[in-house]
Amino acid sequence: MPSFWDFWRRHRRKVFVTVGVLGSGYFLYKLYVGHRRRLDALEREFAIQRENEELIKAQMQAHFENIQRISETITLPHAMHSLSSRISEELDLSQLLEKLIQGKGQPNTLTRSEKLVLWDRLKILSFTRMVLSLWATTMLSLYIKVQVNILGRHLYIDTARSLGSYNSMESGDVIDREDQQKFLGSVDFLSQCGMATLISDMETATKEVLQGKQLRSVFNSTTLQETIMQILDTFISMGSTYSWVKYLMPEDVKAHSKTSLGDDRVPADVTLFDQLMVEARAVLSSAEFGSIVDISLKAVVDTVVEHMEAKLRGGNVTLGLPLAKVLPQVAQMRPLLLEEPSKNHFIQVIKNIPEVEPFFTLLYANTPTALTND
Asked: Given a cut of 60, is residue 210 above it in pLDDT?
């Protein structure tokens, strides 16, 4: 026993140090094990979250591509066909041409004043039809891109809200298919409801610009481009700011005050279709969209003039031709401007404008109300 106490007295400090070191080591080991377990759990959680995010992104991308496919292969071709048919019906040149041909073959059937009236009417209708087709093609292609990106953004928001929930993604499309089809189908408003007012306003603008231009007036490439732009500028300035919206959308869209996209307090009587239409109106009424319209119209006008230059090269339109010789090419531009989208060179021109894609990228990433200065 004395030897134990002697040993303890001599070595107790070492024992305390050893026990302290071993205890600290064991404590640190337990801390490390616990920390390692928490890290492993977090890594598993992050891995599951990444898998969920990848799944949602893949499903969202597939749905967005499906919306684009529907708009490009069904919605836009259908809308362009309806537009072409309506313009051909409302701005038919065949009767005027028949009368002029008949008057040329039978000189006594028309007086000189009657011929001048017919030619003046042909001049007005030809330019009205071409510029209206140019404007409508541009606006329709841009409007459908607005729709696709609004639908895509809603898809992103809805899928983000359901992040990590497999069941909510597997239950079906996050955007109701009926509302989606109804929204995309609203592009028919232009041909079904907005066309009468559009034709009347465009014809008024055309008359104002062409009133001083005679059939013998010399037209070259510059004159032609300036004339088309003057008609467009006059047409646009006739209404209030962004007045083009009235031709593309109904006036009675529910104008409910919208909260932020992250706020779920949407009035109960507002359907998703109502919300989509209100957002589309906000985009079409924005200064940024107005800038894209201006850029796109100028690009299409330049392309139209280049096309007509190529067609009239034999007549040397660069130096100038009488307006009477330019009119046939003006009249023939409508079918080309309203050609089926996959073959439509003018729609491709709009898609390739450098400023267009960034605008729609911004639209996809932000709420429409953030784009408008109203």
From this structure: yes
